[in-house]
Amino acid sequence: MNQVSIDKPSVTKVSGPAGSPKQGPGNLVLALAAALVAALAVCVWLAVSGGGSGADEDSLRDKVSALEAEKTANKDALEAASAFVARVTTYSFEDGKHDLDWVEDLQNEEVREQFRERVADLQATIVASKTSAKGQVTQSAGRVVDESQVEVLAFVDQAITDQSGEVSVEQSSINLTMKLVGGEWKVDTLTFLNAVDP
Q: Which of 28, 130, 145, 186 is the most exposed place for a label (fewest CB within 10 A)?
């Protein structure tokens, strides 16, 4: 019978080259300190370079301010345009209720003259036909040209009551150029795109 011998595994200790220092806690501390210094250097470099320069931050603040100003201009111009359109599309044949003086609020002299001629005829037609109307802006959108000018497109429902009392609703759209004049949004030009036309 053959006898098999099992040797115990031998453990060999491996040491560094002769004369090399022994690894210990002191070297670990030095390595961590070096990594910390490197990380701090990267942070300082990022702060000094493009990541956080004062000029870039000022530029971003200026852009944000400009966007906020445009947003405010658009909101305020839309509100003023909607109120103006409601005035234009609302009238009555009754004495004192067919006030069409909105024409005088138009800022563009040429446009104002064109509407002065047409409004006189409209006023006569309203009284003769005993017609009333109430306009309401159902939707509007603005395009900011700059902080002092906004182009507005307004969609209007106008309930028109005729002499017999019958009511019909006409839909129309109006394009307005709004300009900031003396701190208030005023209508510079006004164009009726369809249906209602005073």
A: 28
